[in-house]
Amino acid sequence: MCEEGSLKGRIEAILFVAGEAVRVEDLARALEIELPALEDALTELRDEYDFAQRGFCLKRFGHHVQLATRALYSTDVVRLLQPVQKQSLSQAVMETLAVVAYRQPVTKAEIEQIRGVKCDYSIHSLVTKNLITEVGRKDTLGRPILYGTTEEFLSHFGLEALEDLPAMPDINGEEKHDGPAPELVN
């Protein structure tokens, strides 16, 4: 087993080269170490980066970890990369994604009922971008597909867990967020 300093260096090297979120289990396997030792090293790295206010930070997205630009310095990075902008999500796709995020698991019919319009294209687009995925089938007539968000969704929006979603105002204007909605019973 290697000494702690070189372990942190090895973690940094892998996360830097990966350029995207890496499953913690895959990182432990690549480093040939046990998960508890990796978790300790990741916590130390995160704390060191936070204390020194480095240009990057260690982010957790469910069971994934990634080196990311610290928000304090993101404006500079955006200015550099501005000509190379990602294709953004349309308003319709974003609305569909919001319904899935807050109501999951949810069927296409339930999404369409909430939005009041067909959502075939939006669902296809979100599945293609790996922001939502099939999470099961509803136990009702026709057994429609249930959709939920993915780890890529968490990473894309800088969330560690669904509980980090902003609270949604209810009809009376008060904030409400109890996590994903329970499955509807017919």
Number of contiguous helices: 8
* CATH architecture level-2 label of the largest domain: Orthogonal Bundle
Helical residues, percent:
40-55%
How do the helices and strands follow one another from N- to C-terminus?
A: HEHHEEHHEHHEEHEE
> Which secondary-structure class do the elements indicate?
alpha+beta
* CATH topology description of the largest domain: Arc Repressor Mutant, subunit A
Percent strand equals 15-25%
- Radius of gyration using CA atoms only: 20 Å
Name the quaternary structure: single chain
Number of domains: 2
- Report the CATH superfamily of the largest domain: Winged helix-like DNA-binding domain superfamily/Winged helix DNA-binding domain
Note the main sheet. Answer: 3 strands, antiparallel
Query: How many E strands?
Result: 8
Mean pLDDT: 85
CATH class of the largest domain: Mainly Alpha
Shape descriptor reads globular
Strand and helix layout:
Blueprint: H1 4-18, E1 22-23, H2 24-31, H3 35-52, E2 56-61, E3 64-69, H4 74-81, H5 91-103, E4 106-107, H6 108-115, H7 120-128, E5 132-137, E6 145-149, H8 151-156, E7 168-169, E8 175-176
Antiparallel strand pairs: 1-3, 2-3, 4-6, 5-6, 7-8
